[in-house]
Design brief:
Helix content is 57%, strand content 0%. α1 packs across α2 and α3 packs antiparallel against α4. The N and C termini lie far apart (62 Å).
């Protein structure tokens, strides 16, 4: 004969949450399958069952060419460079839209930072890639058109 359980018992809580968690998990699976179905449908032009979609996805992933690098995870210096470039692109947009510096000074600053981005590493040394030749630095992001100026309202985003 078992002991009576309290209302706040963790086992009871798990038991009551399990159907909700399972429902959410299934919804995520179905949403992902639906996205895959939309991608495949646009390529093949015919309806597929869920099993067909999964089989085609597995086959596609298996046929991808193997990477020349042994690890797929980005190195810390790659991550650092990507962050540096993203920051540089954001700065270029802010300098262009807010006009806080003279255009010539702004251009010199951005060019200096772009040169630094090409060789930037977290430790300040030169960037190196052991998996082949270094990737060319991406072209500078085009500046978006300046929004109408409203000096009375400043938003940091």
């Amino acid at each position: 004969m078992g002991l009576p359980r309290r209302a706040g018992d963790p086992a009871e809580l798990r038991k009551s949450l399990k159907p909700l968690l399972e429902k959410r998990r299934r919804a995520r699976i179905n949403e992902s399958l639906s996205q895959l179905k939309g991608l495949i449908l646009s390529l093949l032009g015919r309806e597929l069952e869920k099993a067909d979609i999964l089989e085609m996805t597995v086959r596609f992933l298996q046929e991808l060419p193997a990477s020349s690098c042994p690890t797929a995870a980005p190195t810390p210096s790659d991550s650092y460079r990507e962050g540096y470039r993203a920051c540089l692109a954001r700065l270029a947009r802010v300098l262009h839209t807010r006009r806080v510096l003279e255009p010539a000074v702004s251009a010199r600053l951005l060019e200096h930072l772009r040169r630094r981005a090409a060789s930037a590493t977290p430790d300040g040394g030169r960037a190196g890639n052991s998996c082949g030749p270094p990737a060319p630095s991406p072209p500078p992001a085009p500046l978006p058109p300046a929004p109408p100026r409203d000096p009375g309202l400043w938003r940091p985003w």
